[in-house]
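Researcher: I'm preparing a figure for a lab meeting and need a structural model of a single chain. I don't have an experimental structure, so a prediction will have to do for now. The sequence is pasted below. Please return the structure as tokens so I can convert it later.
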Amino acid sequence: MEAYEFDPAVQDKLDKHEKKVEAVQADIIKYSIEKQQPLFDERDEIINSVEKFWPKTLMNSQGLAVFIDDEDREALNSLKAIRVDRDSKDPRSVTIHFDFNDNEYFSDKTLSKKFVPAKDAEPLGSDDYDFAETSETTKTTIHWKSDEKNLSKKNPSKINIENGNEADDEASILAPGSFFSTFFEATTEPVAHIGDRLINDLYPRALEYYTGDAIDIDDMFDDDDEFDEEFDEEDDDDDDKEIDLEEEDDQPPAKKNKK
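Model: Understood. Here is the structure written out token by token.
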């Protein structure tokens, strides 16, 4: 396949056209969020009466459960609601709230995490916009009741440096600690990816995750990888087969069906 380039004058017109497309897509996103939010509010009012709905829903997401250890589960058992608030003017700015019942770990009734687009983020409506890759956040302060109950202190996230320095992404390997450390009290990866999964996958599909009908984003990619591998293997098998033209010539012609 060959790649072709447009004449500069044509490319300029196409770039301007793309801006118009992005503006329309941005309007569609805003309209969709405006119409969906009351429905989410109504849904949440119903499911928040279901005992331990959100703790069970969280644990049913494999992509999130990997960041939750046994002690996190105990603390998250007091989770009574998850809420998502988007900026009406720029939905890329979003805050997720975890509402808790009284518990033995911290005194906070609500733990919130806000994400805003980085300065170099693609505009709303752009196909190239990536929430996880271009969102920024700040640390959420948790008021732990004691050092003994401070899960972030007992199990902090760590960066293991291998043959390099912390600035070298390839040399730095994050060892996730407590969910509260890795998500709420962190500002670097994988916090934005966790936020992306919570905000754009788990929250809108909470009912599916609770019932077990949901398919994790990672599972979808895994299935695609398995399909690709099987396809490649079949393709390799076909390539390995030799075609014997002489043998084909020796075969008698197929009989024609009598009319």
